[in-house]
Amino acid sequence: MKGCRIHDNGQVGLFLCWRVRDGHFEDNRIENNGKYGISIGHKDTDNVFVNNLIAGNAFSGVYFRKETFKNSGHRNRFSGNKVLNNGNAKEGYGFYIEPLAGDLEISKNQITDTAPAKSGLSVMAFTRPQG
User: Fold this and answer.
1) Whole-model pTM?
2) Strand order from edge to edge, sheet including 24-26
3) Which residues make Cβ contacts (< 8 Å) with residue 80, sequence separation at least 6?
4) pLDDT digit string, tens, across residues 97-121
């Protein structure tokens, strides 16, 4: 998928689900979605995200959903993306990674929030398995 504009959706801009594998997502604008810019989960593996703008989404720019280890979104790669100003007045994240997604590569991205100070914002969050 290249050169698309995904914006102003109620919950998720780009929702990967049920074995999206070996995808290449480049030069896209993913903006102002109701919760997540990109949501990755059930067996979505080995995808590459390059030179995308992921901005202004209400909770996080990129969200790795909570799955079992077997079903998690493993081996996805993010490089050269701009992940900007995601979140709302209470909380927000550039990347929010639920437990068990592994072998991720997040390198050479611009991850920032340039809005006035908000409480609870972080560029990255990793949750821990319960129990």
Assistant:
1) 0.89
2) 24-26, 48-50, 77-79, 105-107
3) 50, 51, 108, 109
4) 998 999 999 999 999 988 766 555 5
